[in-house]
User: Fold this.
Amino acid sequence: MKTIFKTIGILILILFISVIGAFGKLLGKSISNNLGNSQNINNQLISKTGQTQAHQRAHVNSCISAGSSKEYCNCTFDQIKEVYSPKDIIDIAKYFKNNSKFPDDFIKLVSECNALKK
Assistant:
């Protein structure tokens, strides 16, 4: 059970970092566009909750680096992106920091992918 919480904790932190990174990229894109640079950072929305391709790449790459299978990492992101916005992920990370546990609904959602773990 501790392994599941550790994995979920890593995923939350990864998403939190990717959200912060994506906001930085969006800011950089706005500045670049204002300067006349049309560089595409491929940060298109991929969910109604505001998750982007940048969030997905960051989540999956970090999740795989943490030792999980690509299938598991894609599954967890697919579950998360339909329910939680980037702001929600930050709130979940704060909840975990303050309570040393995740909200039950989040645990249940991510647990649907456990069969795909390495």
Remarks:
- Residues 22-41 have pLDDT under 50 and may be disordered.
- The two ends are 15 Å apart (CA to CA).
